[in-house]
Amino acid sequence: MKNLVIIAGLALIFIGLVSFKTIFNDPAIPKVPPPQEASGFTVPDNIQSILDKSCLPCHGTDGKYKAKMKWNYDKMPQMKTSKKIGKLSKIATKIEKGKMPPKKFLSKNPDKQLTDQEKKTLIDWAREYASELAN
Fold first, then answer.
1. pTM of the full predicted structure?
2. How far apart are CA 28 and CA 82, in angstroms?
3. C-alpha span between 131 and 2 (Å, rounded)
4. Taking a C-beta distance cutoff of 8 angstroms, is the pair 85, 133 a contact?
5. Is 29 exposed, middle or buried (0-12, 13-18, 19+ CB in 10 A)?
6. 53 within 8 A of 45, measured Cβ to Cβ
7. Alpha carbons 50 and 68: distance in angstroms, whole number
8. Residue 102: in which H helix or E strand, if any?
């Protein structure tokens, strides 16, 4: 009797594992998109290259202290849409007013200076993207 219970238990476990594998390998079940796609936060390559050059040294993964606390780029995909809209609007305003990148940072890293075209591109993208998210 003991052997019968053990065999029945093992059979149930085997059936469960086979069913589990079948369910999660079923191509009819849509796969969960990566966080960036799921969140609706996408960045075109031309914008990403500007961010990489002039923004992410402080506001990215390797950013430090106050800058990263104020705006952490890595957290954008997880933000609520309303917060993304607010951050994008602030980005446009700070760049437009010449507050980002800050002068102190640029004095140590002159190669991170945004050109007028890069400023315009970032500002236009941030405003258009915020507007797009709002609709």
1. 0.67
2. 33
3. 68
4. yes
5. exposed
6. no
7. 17
8. none
| pLDDT greater than 80 at residue 4 | no
Look at residue 85 and tell me whether its pLDDT is greater than 90.
Answer: yes
Tell me which DSSP letter residue 31 carries: P
54 touches 106 (CB < 8 A): no
pLDDT digits (tens, 9 = 90+) for 108-132: 999 999 999 999 999 999 999 999 9
Alpha helices in the chain (DSSP H): 2-24, 35-39, 45-54, 56-59, 65-70, 81-96, 103-108, 116-134
Tokens 């980002």, located at residue: 100
Both structure tokens of 84: 């993304």
Given this model, what pLDDT does residue 107 score? 94
